[in-house]
Structure formats: C-alpha cells, structure tokens
Amino acid sequence: MNAYTGWALHTDKYQITMMYAHWKNGSHLERRAFDLYFRTLPFGNGYAVFAGLERAVHYLEELRFSEDDIRYLSKQPEKYEPAFLDMLRKFRFTGDVHGMLEGTFVFPNEPLLRLEGSVMELQLLETALLNFIGYQTLVATKAARIRTIAEGDALMEFGTRRAQESDAAIWGTRAAYLAGFDATSNLKAGDLFDIPTRGTHSHAWVQDFDSELESFRAFAHAFPDSCVLLVDTYDTLKSGVPHAIRVGHELRERGHDLAGIRLDSGDLAYLSKEARRMLDEAGLSRTQIVASSDLDETTIQSLKNQGARIDAWGVGTKLITAYDQPALGAVYKLVARERNGAWQPTIKISSNPEKVTTPGVKNVYRIIDRDTEKARGDLIIEEGHAIDEEQPLTLFHPIHTYRKKRVHEFHAVNLLQPIFRDGKRVYELPSLQEIRRYHAEQRELFWEEHLRLLNPEEYHVDLSDDLWKKKQELLQKIYQTIRKG
Ligand SMILES: Nc1ncnc2c1ncn2[C@@H]1O[C@H](COP(=O)(O)OP(=O)(O)OP(=O)(O)O)[C@@H](O)[C@H]1O
Ligand SMILES: O=P(O)(O)OC[C@H]1O[C@H](OP(=O)(O)OP(=O)(O)O)[C@H](O)[C@@H]1O
Ligand SMILES: O=C(O)c1cccnc1
C-alpha cells in the first residue's frame, strides 16, 4: 500500500452494507447523483479554501479491492454472498465527477464535488471523500487566515509532531502550502509535493553542549550561510541574543551572515523588539527574527499590533490540527435518481431550513461584475440550464428571499469542472505551484468585506429562479404525501 493504493476499505461499514443490499435488490447499477458540500464556514471565516481534489482523484483512479480486502470482507458476520464479493474483485470507478479546482474560494451549500454513477460505487466513496476533502479544506482555510494576517512575512509549517497522525501531517502541509504558506519543516511532504523545506534547531542542540556559545559556534560551523539560532534555552536577552551576536560577528569575519535567530517562548513582542535593537546595534541588520510558540492568526495579529519585529513565523499545532474547529462538517447527499433515462431530483427534509438539500444535478456559477472584476455571488443552477450574460440577473437569498440584488454587466464562470467521465480522468492535475498561484489570484475576486477575519460580510450563494421553484414544489409534494398518510 502506498499513499494512493489500498484505500477500498477506508469506508464506513454501512456503505458496503448498502452496496450489498442494493445488489440483493437488483438496484446496484442504477444511476444516482450525489453532491459533496459543507453547510457552515469554519473559524467564523467569510470563505473556505477548497483542497483535497488531488488526493480524491488518486483515490478514485486506484480504487479496487485486493484479495486481502475480499478475504477480510468474506469473514464479516454479515456473510456477503460469494457472487457479491466476486463483483467487488472487478470493481473500478466508472462514474462522472465534476469538481471545484483546489485553491478556489468556496461557500456553504454549493457542491464542491458532483458525482454521477451507479449507486453502488457512489455509496462506497462517501466516507473517504468526506475524510480527504473535509480535513484538507479546513487546514487550507486556516492557512489562508494566517496568510491574511502575516501579510508578506514568511510562513513556515511546523506542525507534524502535533498532527493527528501522519496522513494529516502530510496532506495538511500540502493544504497549508497551497493556501499561502511558504515552506514546511516536514521533509516527506517536501519530497512528495515539492514544497520548499526550512528549519532551525531545537533546544536539545543547545543542551547537548557545555555552553550555549559553544553550541551556536558548532551550528554556525556546520551551516555558515543558513544558520538560525534558537536563543531562548537559558535567557533570551541576557544569554541567547548576545551569544548569537558573537557568533554573527565571527561568521562575518569569515565572510558569512548570521541568517537568523528564533524566539520560542516569553513575550514575543517585547523580546523581538529588544532582539532587533541589539542585532541592529551590533551591525547585524540582515539577521532575521523567526518566532514560534503556539501561534495562530490571533496571536500573530496581536503581535503585529504590538509592533513585534518578527520576519518569519513558524506555525504548528494550531494550524495542522485546525485547533479551534477540528471538523468542517462536510456532507455527501443524494440529489437525483435516474428514472427511465432522466434525472429525478430527490430531497432530504429537515426542520432546519439550512439542512434541506437542494435537489437535482447542478452547476455552480460565480457571477463576476464586469466593471469591478469582483465576484457578486455564486448561483446554483440545474445542469443543462445556461445563464444569459446579456440579460440582467436577479440574485436572491434562497431562505430570506426578500434579500435580492440585480446584476447587470457580468460574466458567469462555471466552477464545477469535469474531472472524470465514465471513470476516465479528463482533468490534468495542475502542479502544486500552479494551484498556489491560482489560489492567490482568486483572492483578487473578493471584496475586503468578505476577506476580513472577524465578522465578515456574508457572500451570497443563491439558487436560480427555476431551481428555487423546483425545490419548493418538491417540498410541497412531500408534505402533501405526508399529510395524506
Ligand atoms: N506579546 C504577546 N502578546 C500576545 N501573545 C503572546 C505574546 N507573546 C507570546 N504570546 C503567546 O502567548 C502564549 C505563551 O505560551 P506559554 O504560556 O506556554 O509560554 P511560553 O512563553 O511559550 O513558554 P514555554 O514554551 O516555556 O512554555 C503563546 O501562545 C505565545 O504565542
Ligand atoms: O508551537 P507550535 O505552533 O506547535 O510550533 C511547533 C513547536 O514545536 C517546537 O517545540 P517543541 O515540541 O520542541 O516543544 P516546546 O513547545 O516546549 O518548545 C517548536 O519550538 C514550536 O514551539
Ligand atoms: O525547524 C524548526 O525550528 C522547527 C521545526 C518543527 C517544529 N518546531 C520547530
């Protein structure tokens, strides 16, 4: 098993159970459509950053049951019939997938992935897709928040030791990088995804020597051009920084610069200002100050407000674990069934209107104002229905319908791109650098009001007139059926 193979059993048992029951029922090959989406933005943010498509693509391409998987299933107490297991042996993904591109700014209740295929195969995918996309989207969104606050400073991902196991460290690092981090300390992620790697040294290095000065000298000897010294092992201002300055001068005599110092405890605002002053007075103005220590967007913002003199930030625990909101709560819902060659929309009702699903096979268009080149809102519309860019468009809130706006000069960009057709990938995976660039460009589409971290303005995700009416009709029909008993 490598990163991409061996994941067929990475699913909830009830998916296999439903596949089996469909097979017994003779309905396993009937076509269905599912949407994957989330209902609430994480961290109180104004947008989320879509991530996880690449992993989902590899998963779908490699999806098959090995002999070991079949043997394991055959031992389950449910006693699946051998003919069913035989069918699993030949299982390949044969469906269609449309998806948002990684790095896209995404919003609640719009399909991030739309899948069409046999009910049997689509049921199997639910758990794994939610697992990959929920987590990666969460970390990418957290990283984007940190990037907003850090402005042009360097951001390093330091979280592996605190991540929820190895996969989270690796894929979380990729998500952080695509949403604006500059480097990682994780060499495996660096190797797998071609992410720049960076690092300093730990307290153990300093403790390993009879004196701090000796430890700094030895480190500088090994890395004369890239040496970042951790200065807080004993006393930052009385010992660490003065020793770093001494080593900086010794390096200078040999024609090198001390690259940086790292602060990892104490009052980072005060210490960075003092350290900057001491370094500058010693003629080491090119030496950078790196900070780490339980950082996130809130502490970085506060440190900046206090005038901290920090050039680079190492962020671990709070990024990689999405500390303040550890789950996106993404869902995967059945939206249509094929009946006599045509899609029949389905709906899931809830007493909470936010949780009522939007029926049918749909596209998501981003409506972009031609004058400002800013996004005005997203419009969900049935597949096969076009948006006429020559006519003014009325956007209205699907629940609070009195909230309307009219858009005149706009272009409409379809966000759901074809990824698989009949099980064949039709989408060329972009490089991570391309995704990162695309994400940075996307930012320009949004007003600051949606991008601010605290109480951002809600971005509109609306339904087309037709779709809204169809949803209401379907709701009425179901309520009538319930009333009739
Ligand atoms: N000036 C500051 N303003 C706001 N928050 C700060 C400031 N300086 C440091 N912090 C944050 O305060 C927290 C301090 O953490 P903690 O109490 O664990 O102490 P520490 O200084 O890191 O010491 P140690 O690592 O030895 O436990 C960290 O989250 C750090 O990022
Ligand atoms: O604080 P984070 O954002 O999670 O960043 C990673 C932390 O990992 C290292 O600490 P280490 O594990 O050596 O222990 P420490 O917290 O006691 O320094 C490093 O010095 C950071 O403090
Ligand atoms: O290189 C570092 O300074 C580093 C890496 C991981 C975690 N903490 C610090």
UniProtKB/TrEMBL annotation:
Keywords: Glycosyltransferase, Ligase, Phosphoprotein, Pyridine nucleotide biosynthesis, Transferase. InterPro entries: Aldolase_TIM, N/Namide_PRibTrfase, NAPRTase_C, NAPRTase_N, Nic_PRibTrfase-Fam, Nic_PRibTrfase_pncB, Nicotinate_pribotase-like_C. It catalyses: 5-phospho-alpha-D-ribose 1-diphosphate + nicotinate + ATP + H2O = nicotinate beta-D-ribonucleotide + ADP + phosphate + diphosphate. Residues 9-133 form the Nicotinate phosphoribosyltransferase N-terminal domain. It is an enzyme of class 6 (ligase). Belongs to the NAPRTase family. Pathway: Cofactor biosynthesis; NAD(+) biosynthesis; nicotinate D-ribonucleotide from nicotinate: step 1/1. It holds the Pfam family NAPRTase_C. Residues 155-355 form the Nicotinate/nicotinamide phosphoribosyltransferase domain. Catalyzes the first step in the biosynthesis of NAD from nicotinic acid, the ATP-dependent synthesis of beta-nicotinate D-ribonucleotide from nicotinate and 5-phospho-D-ribose 1-phosphate. Residues 362-471 form the Nicotinate phosphoribosyltransferase C-terminal domain. Its EC number is 6.3.4.21. Transiently phosphorylated on a His residue during the reaction cycle. Phosphorylation strongly increases the affinity for substrates and increases the rate of nicotinate D-ribonucleotide production. Dephosphorylation regenerates the low-affinity form of the enzyme, leading to product release. GO terms for molecular function: glycosyltransferase activity; nicotinate phosphoribosyltransferase activity. The lineage of its organism: Bacteria, Bacillati, Bacillota, Bacilli, Bacillales. This is Nicotinate phosphoribosyltransferase.
